[in-house]
Amino acid sequence: MPQLILVPGKERSVFRRHPWLFAGSVERLIGQARPGDTVEVVAGSQVLGKAAWSPASQIRARMWSFDAAETIDDVFFKRRVAAAVARRATLPSLVGQSGLRLIHAESDGLPGVIADRYGDLVVLQLTSAGAEKWRSAIAGALAKATGCSRIYERSDSEVRSLEGLEPRTGWLYGSPVEEAVVIDEHGIRMGIDFVAGHKTGFYLDQRDNRRLLGQLAGGRRVLNCFCYTGGFSLQALAGGAAKVESVDSSEPALAQARTNLALNPQLDAARADWRCANVFDELRRLRAAGERFDLIVLDPPKFAPSASHAERAARAYKDINLHGFRLLSPGGLLMTYSCSGGVGLELFQKIVAGAALDAGRDARIVQRLQGAADHPVALAFPEGEYLKGLLVEVS
Ligand code: SAH
Predict the structure, then answer these.
(1) Is the terminal CB of the chain with fewer CB neighbours within 10 Å at N or C?
(2) Structural fold of domain 3-65
(3) How many angstroms separate the CA atoms of 85 and 109, rounded?
(4) Where along the chain do its domains lie?
């Protein structure tokens, strides 16, 4: 097996069980390895574990195992996949969910592997050279561990290009689904466009936060910014909101949102309003029109994929939060998020505090928010913590 020799001192992150080995940590490779091949990770004369080699990426290798004796083969993937699936069956908030993230990459010991379950369908996304190499082993392990009859591949994330991988989508296992795929989320039916929707089709990470919004919405006038397919909006309607106005710049997302509303005839559709607009402009327009809301959700896309984008992202977060605060009625609530890995909780809180100050609003955090339990964060891998949110109440 090829050996990846670490630069002296760089073994420390491996001892801390961090799964990434950057180019600067690699002294040399002994032997031949193609992208995705398994290499032994060596410091001095000690083998520290096994990793997937990715010569095109700045993350030159990702650890599969910190056990030098562990073999990386089909059985290894069966074990890891089965463990990830089993772990979710022990968490009360996840039991019985028809939409569930089964594998959350590094934090489930499977770098570059994302698997989301929508009813009887699993959508698989592979984003690293190592994951790509073991594609059929992973798919086979998923079929076995879940009993699901179909797997669709959505390996079209842009990050694949960093690993020298082309996009790939299509049926990987089982026969194509003819009917619409619909999940139940806290009593609301949501259709999933797993072929053309964002990510694998849905933002499962916000599941618990959408329920919380429903619990807060009773009698309130709600503005849901960056609504995608309406997950927060429909929970707000179910929670008895007086009015729910939703904004997104994507027509296909809004079309799915309308379909989702129609899938839930128990909701009062007359209270829902969908608008295709740029949130940055729309917040200003609403302000100029003298509108006021009692509850505002800001769940924007990733403004800062990495720390190098943090400054520009900070300005964007500041802008929407400032305008959000200005639109809140006295006693109103702002539910605000960042899913940027490059913006940590501390920075995000500072930005939101600055926005409240500039808006002249006296405000307090009443709850911190994060992703659901099927999106765990390995303690050794703080980079896995991307979603952070604040529930803020204004005077
Ligand atoms: N809250 C959603 C997920 C939001 S994802 C849920 O619970 O499912 C971010 C959304 O922001 C996407 O739907 C994207 O189309 C939209 N978006 C991105 N930039 C935008 C902009 N400038 N104005 C309005 N919508 C935008």
Answers:
(1) C
(2) 2.30.130
(3) 12
(4) 3-65, 74-173, 196-394
Q: Which residue has the tokens 């795929």?
A: 181
Tens of pLDDT along 166-193? Answer: 999 999 999 998 889 999 999 999 999 9
Q: Distance between CA atoms of 235 and 240, rounded to whole angstroms?
A: 9
Q: How many CB atoms lie within 10 A of CB 330?
A: 10
Around ligand 1, the residues with Cβ closer than 6 Å are 203, 206, 226-229, 231-232, 247-250, 253, 278-280, 299-301
Integer Cα distance of 317 and 206 in angstroms: 18
CATH of domain 196-394: 3.40.50.150
Centre of ligand 1 from the C-alpha of residue 222, in Å:
16
What is the spatial distance between Cα 146 and Cα 140, in angstroms, rounded to a whole number?
Answer: 10
For residue 310, what are its two tokens? 């943090």
CATH 3.90.180.10 is the classification of domain 74-173: no
In the three-class reduction of DSSP (H, G, I as helix; E, B as strand; rest coil), residue 17 is classed as coil
Q: Give residue 205's identity as a one-letter amino acid code.
A: D
Distance 278 CA to ligand 1 centre (A): 9
Amino acid at 228: Y
The percentage of the chain sitting over the pLDDT mark of 70, rounded to a whole number, equals: 100
Please tell me the distance between residue 95's alpha carbon and the centre of ligand 1 in angstroms: 28
Each residue's pLDDT tens digit, 67-117 = 999 999 999 999 999 999 999 999 999 999 999 999 999 999 999 999 999
Q: Edge-to-edge strand order for the sheet containing 38-43?
A: 20-22, 59-65, 46-53, 38-43, 3-6, 26-30
